Amino acid sequence: MTYQEFLTQFIEGMRATTFLEYLAVFSGIASVWFSRIENIWVYPVGLISTVIYIFLSAERSLFGEASVNLYYTIMSIYGWVLWLKKDKQQHYVVTVQFSSRREWVQQLLFFAFFYVAIYAALHYLKQAFYSATIPWADAFASATAFTGMWLMAKKKVESWYWWIATNIASIPLYFAKQYVFTSVFYFVLFVMAVFGLIEWRKRALKHGKIN
Fold first, then answer.
1. Of the candidates 17, 175, 158, 150, which has an alpha carbon nearest to the alpha carbon of residue 96?
2. Is the pTM for the entire model greater than 0.90?
3. Rg (CA), the chain
4. DSSP 94
5. Residues 93, 79: contact at Cβ < 8 Å?
6. d(Cα 171, Cα 183) in Å, to the nearest integer?
7. In the chain, which ranges are continuous DSSP H helix?
8. CB 152 within 8 A of CB 83
9. What sign for the dihedral angle of Cα 35, 63, 190, 14?
10. CA pair distance 196, 35, nearest whole angstrom
11. Nearest in space to 154 (alpha carbons), one of 201, 98, 114
């Protein structure tokens, strides 16, 4: 793709962006901002974005993205409850901390399982129904996102590494599928994820939360 072709596709994509996609993008950015500062509003605001993206993805037969956002929605409710949970001394049960070696192994296995499962499902769907699907790329973006969302609910610093991987994969993926504004959205999320990682590392080190 030449620079002129890229620019033309970008301009056309921005013109075709709907109000719902704008709303999903800006609520998603706000949600990541709240997650960086460890604010509970990450979840109610994020739900606005994920629910809209379920609808937008299903509308264009992008069922890989739809499944990711359905998972986000479920995990947002789970994370919302978990972040608010307190012990008998009224201290929050979940705090920002690093993963242990055992938890790293669990994360990698979690990612591998979902990558294989999603790739197999999307490969079948592409052949049978949906030519817009890019199985290997969709599976990678989805599996890293699944892992990142799971770890975010548990306030693990490493969740940001998985988010960074998700965002890097999603920038070209959504552009290729003509969700240009969403592609820009993932670039913004990539930058925010880097700052989120830095912030959560500082918080974990400050409180000595190393397993």
1. 158
2. no
3. 18
4. -
5. no
6. 5
7. 3-15, 19-36, 42-59, 63-84, 101-128, 135-153, 159-176, 180-206
8. no
9. negative
10. 8
11. 98
Which pair of tokens denotes residue 168? 């890097």
What are the residue ranges spanned by the domains of the chain? 3-206
The single-letter DSSP state of residue 99 is: P
Question: In the numeric block, which tokens belong to residue 52?
Answer: 């809209």
Q: Would you give per-residue pLDDT tens digits along the chain (211 residues)?
A: 566 666 676 677 666 678 888 898 899 999 999 999 999 999 999 999 999 989 988 887 777 678 888 999 999 999 999 999 988 778 888 999 999 999 999 999 999 999 999 888 887 776 655 556 678 888 899 899 999 999 999 999 999 999 999 999 999 888 877 777 778 889 999 999 999 999 999 999 987 655 5
DSSP 37: T
